[in-house]
UniProtKB/TrEMBL annotation:
GO terms of molecular function: catechol 2,3-dioxygenase activity; ferrous iron binding
UniProt keyword annotations, A-Z: Aromatic hydrocarbons catabolism, Dioxygenase, Iron, Metal-binding, Oxidoreductase, Repeat
Highest taxon listed in the record's lineage: Bacteria
Xref: PROSITE patterns: EXTRADIOL_DIOXYGENAS, VOC
PANTHER family for this protein: GLYOXALASE FAMILY PROTEIN
Names of required cofactors: Fe(2+)
Species annotation: Marinobacterium stanieri
Protein name: Metapyrocatechase
EC number, UniProt record: 1.13.11.2
Subunit-structure text: Homotetramer.
Amino acid sequence: MKKGVMRPGHVQIRVLDLEEAINHYVELMGLIETDRDDQGRVYLKAWTEVDKFSVVLREADQPGMDFMSFKCLSEEVLDLLQHELVDYGVEVEEVAAGELKGCGRRIRFQAPTGHNFELFATKEQTGRYGVGNHNPEAWPRDLKGMKAQRFDHCLLYGPNLDQTYALFRDVLGFDLCEQVMTPDGKRVAQFLTTSMKAHDIAFIDHPEPGKFHHASFFLETWEDVLRAGDLISMTDTSIDIGPTRHGITHGQTIYFFDPSGNRNEVFCGGDYFYPDHEPITWDADKLGKAIFYHDRQLNERFLTALT
Ligand SMILES: [Fe+2]
């Protein structure tokens, strides 16, 4: 049941070389740089997003994800969820407004999978890039590369999927769209939504906590996904798999890596969700088809290349 968590707001990604990363996320993927801060972090957004940023790049010695943040409907909702997290027994840390430029206070907590999540309600709105809100044209003419439209979701690897699902369901109001179950009833993958999207966050069972599988960005058409594949080859970017289709969510997808080894996805299409939808279940022995619908088998990289 929805409790006022609207959507993925931003993800902070660690990169080994900031300039290489900017070249990747801006020139290849088509994100737009909107700011930098005195910590050296770079703020990016996709063109259809109304908020100032959705991706923050931080230079570090190890790649991976620092945190993923969800935007709430209001400061009142944020207050309520902060209290509910504490009542649920979750340790929360309050990050002051302005720690990320243009972003209000954030409530940070760790999920049982070992990942850091945040909630916030306020962020400076810069509007849709290049078209705005008044008589907007169809798209801006100066977009680069893949022309990513929005930051859509992350897929994360870690332990304690049941406890993590319970936290996201009971406190944050997420619904379970899709799951992969073993014959003895263990959920080894869970795709959760707080919207009509097929997933806003997804988890795969993995013994090591806090691992980052990919950050995903939405494209409009299958033609755009194919074109992304062309651009990946033109730029000698490391490719993982695709263009292909997922069984889970039925999205059409391509996976590749940023210069630091963080996986990215761009995709189009996919299922939709309403709160009266029963979760879709895949059997674990169909995992290959569930992930890569055409190949029907996982490549080793999908399971092991994590940051
Ligand atoms: Fe994905």
